[in-house]
Amino acid sequence: MQTRNMILLGVAVLLGLVAVFLANSYFSGVEQKQQQIAEEQKLARIVVASQDVGFGAPLNQQNIRLANWPANSIPAGAFTSIAAAMKDNRVALRPIVIGEPVLASKVSGADGRATLSANLPVGKVAFAIPINDVSGVGGFARPGDRVDVLLTRPIPGGGSAGTDKMTDVVLEAVPVLGIDQISDELQTKPAPGKTATLEVDTIGAQKLALAIQLGALSLALRNVADQAAGPQQTVIARNLSNSNYFIRPSAPAAPSYAAAIQPPMRLPGLAPTLPSRPKGPTMVVFRGSQSSEYEVQRGW
Predict the structure, then answer these.
(1) Measured CA distances, 53 to 50, 68, 89, 106, 186 (Å)
(2) In this structure, which topology does domain 41-119 adopt according to CATH?
(3) What pLDDT does 113 receive?
(4) Which of 33, 43, 93, 206: disulfide with 68, CB 3.0–4.6 Å?
(5) Closest CA to 218 of 143, 142, 129, 156
């Protein structure tokens, strides 16, 4: 019985070795065949993604492979071997879709870390602004989109009221790097956030920093095919109507008759002097056109 078990175990091991040999032979044959095809058609072998690779995912044998590529159109930064692509524990700095070439600009360097700063072009900075469900386009502004930044603030000047507002376009066609903590461009499902991280230059970052202190910022989502800057105009409340209708300020009220009559001037310390009135009967004497009034004395 024990001898039988040993025989069965030996047969199983032998079959396993044969299976491994056949598998290696098959894959080696496929690889040799691909190399032969590449040589015949003047193709090169570069590393591509064998499955979707998300931001921060490490490169390994499961998500990358070698593929034939026209030798005269190899992308800059392409890897020609799996070992070179996996060197220094590289990770994806940007999403890589299946079949897409793995380029040096899309993966990390010797540090093996996926950082947002590695995605920034030279001369650009990342700046975050506060948003909400409304100002963030209802959550439809996602990483990879481009937006215009609008500022609504009170109209400056001593003659404006507290309700007088104006809206300006601060920046146009600004790339969105992230919403909250999400920077994966493959996550396109709408999701409202509290902050939006934008790719701007230094002057743009200064404008945004000042605009946050002056008023409320809003995002306007752009069409991916419309990246040209348009004419900028300041919009005030009067521009919201198609007519020039407005209410004129009311004229000041006319002074009343009683207020127009000024009281007689009084000197300090002196009582007002009024003409004395006759105490008894009077008589009016006319001399030409002039009249005079006299008091009549009683004879008793």
Answers:
(1) 9, 20, 14, 11, 10
(2) Type Iii Antifreeze Protein Isoform Hplc 12 (3.90.1210)
(3) 65
(4) 43
(5) 129
* Tens-digit pLDDT profile for residues 257-292: 555 555 555 555 555 555 566 666 776 666 766 777
Which residues in the chain are classed under CATH 3.90.1210.10?
Answer: 41-119
- Token pair recorded at residue 98: 């299946």
**How many Cβ atoms are within 10 Å of 130's Cβ, its own excluded?**
13
> Which residues, listed in sequence order, are joined to residue 282 by a DSSP beta bridge?
295
Structure-model confidence comparison of residues 170 and 250, the more confident one? 170
Instruction: With H, G, I as helix, E, B as strand and everything else as coil, classify residue 184.
Output: coil
Q: How far apart are CA 296 and CA 277, in angstroms?
A: 13
CA max distance for the chain: 177
Kindly list the distances between the CA atom of residue 220 and the CA atoms of 74, 203, 205, 250, 264, in Å, as whole numbers in the listed order: 38, 20, 18, 39, 69
pTM for the predicted model, two decimal places: 0.55
Q: Which of helix, strand or coil describes residue 107?
A: strand
